[in-house]
Amino acid sequence: xxxxxxxxxxxxxxxxxxxxxxxxDTDVLLRVAxxxxxxxxxxxxxxxxxxxxxxxxxxxxxxxCAGVVAKVGPAVKRxxxxxxxxxxxxxxxxxxxxxxxxRPNTCRNLKFISCPGQAxxxxxxxxxxPERNCYKIQNHTTFEQAAIAEPLSIGIYSVCRxxxxxxxxxxxxxxxxxxxxxxxxxxxxxxERIYVTDKIDTRLQAARGAGACWTGNPDSIDIxxxxxxxxxxxLDVVFECCGRQEALNQAFELLKPGGxxxxxxxxxxxxxxxxxxxxxxxxxxxxFIRRQNNCVQxxxxxxxTGKVSVDFMLTHRFGLEQAKEAFxxxxxxxxxxxxxxxxxxx
Length: 346
Prior knowledge:
By secondary structure, the chain is α/β, with parallel strands linked by helices.
């Protein structure tokens, strides 16, 4: 079968690799239909690592995927050959203290597809996953939408982790696919006013179209003073979705006393800093997000019922042979790209 493999820094090749086979009774062989290019995939493409996770070449990335069930193990009950499914890329052990406490996203033995040292990714024609990681999609849900359910699930989880969103004034700093997913999830939870910032104007335009009440580019305006002019008490919650130190600084200035910072973005550096005096004096709280926890089905439900529309996020489509071109586009933020997907023959 064909696969797109990272072979070095900014190097990617299409190669023939062995087709995987079912080994466990609860395994599912999935024929991949489409794979979204995520920011974490791009980190591995550009630098070969995220924190301690370093790529050993060659390596397959990609985890936002959907496809068709090709074959199932003898104990599989939830799906059957021919079913169209979305994928939860985090494979938890279901046995450690974290899993038993209802926290599979912090599983001690977690294997995340496309994460070095854990499991290879989905930029392949076929992939084997446990049955529990495959979610049937409705007939009218497209493969494209099903793949976007993965970042949307992170947005839903981020909003769920902040109970103050309903009726609140919130900020979202950085509106790539994850920030836009937070925006959609916050709207679904009845956030009253949503203020959005980004350094890419086309993404601000997309956020306005998706329901943001205000957007601003920190490279051209003082976003803190502008937002506080509109919201003198400050914001109830700020979601930091770009992983930038300057955005963290802005978040603390924007929050009202007793407000909450939700850190969703992944910083490139290992350490960030806070103004501890402001943090303590205003009794601010901070919440970190580790991917998502049991939010894939809610994401698919929101998409399937039409309560949220994710179609505007998919701006570019590529074939497998164009995978490197897709990664270069996303890495450079070219041509107004929000979400690029790589499509397999199916």
